[in-house]
Amino acid sequence: MTAIPVARTAVGSDAEAVAAPNRPPRDWVTIGLWVALLVTAAFWLVPFAVMLLTSFKSRADLASGSTLGLPSQWLWSNYADAVDTGDLWISGSNSLLVSVIKVPLGLLLAALAAYALARIHMRRAKWVVAVFAVGSMVPIQVALGPMFQLLLKADLLDTYVGLILPYLAFGVPYQVFMLYGSFRAIPDEVEESARLDGASTFRIFWQICCPLIKPTLAALFVLDFVSTWNEYAMASTILQSGSMATIPLAVQNFSAQHGTDYGPLNAFIIMTAIPVLIVYLLFQRYFVSGAFSGAVKG
């Protein structure tokens, strides 16, 4: 008589154990990372939201409304006024021309130098890399005076060439230092198999090694484009006329002359950030891709 209830109890407990779901333990580290990510995103997005709302507000809305409040009337005319007042087409075309020439040319020169130092056996190559690393640490402000005198004697002030050459001089060392490690990480078997097939050194560099370091090139392209687009110190020293002004100089002039027109001012700043956003969206998919996965088989 007592054996039957005991058996039922055992069967019932087994059924409850089977029916109970296997809940994984909470990963508090992941939860903490997500919270930190959301807080950091809020710190970045709130100022941008304020700037975006302000760009559509009138002076009456700015005087009476709250900072995060919606405008009573969405003034798209602020953007048209900003384009006309700030000479956006002139400054934007200047910055775009300088960036389009400097960024690809600088990456090409840096990639050629880094490939030669990393893949071609030469004496004291590491010392040369160390010199590039030290050169990348030199602050721009130290060289503004000598650079101005040198460009003045060469009659290159207020010219595109006079602006692009210093940009290359200060941008290439850092890129060489970064690309050197990427080229060194390529397995030797990749280059050896290409040489057995009769490939030249330049073909190995251009068709084999460069595609393998595409994520690094894309990251450097975006970073270099952003720094060139937003560079102010050298541009303010070299460029003298308003027709040669780049985007940072145009923003400064707009703020100095129309600093109380917060609607058009914020509209102008937003429009100047659009090219940088486009470049990032075009290259961001390469940031997390594997650089050398599948490069060597077997």
From TrEMBL:
Residues 92-283 form the ABC transmembrane type-1 domain. It holds the Pfam family BPD_transp_1. GO terms for biological process: transmembrane transport. It is found in: Cell membrane. Keywords: Cell membrane, Membrane, Transmembrane, Transmembrane helix, Transport. It is a multi-pass membrane protein. CDD domains: TM_PBP2. GO terms for cellular component: plasma membrane. Belongs to the binding-protein-dependent transport system permease family. This is ABC-type transporter, integral membrane subunit. The chain crosses the membrane at residues 31-53, 96-118, 127-148, 160-183, 204-226, 263-283.
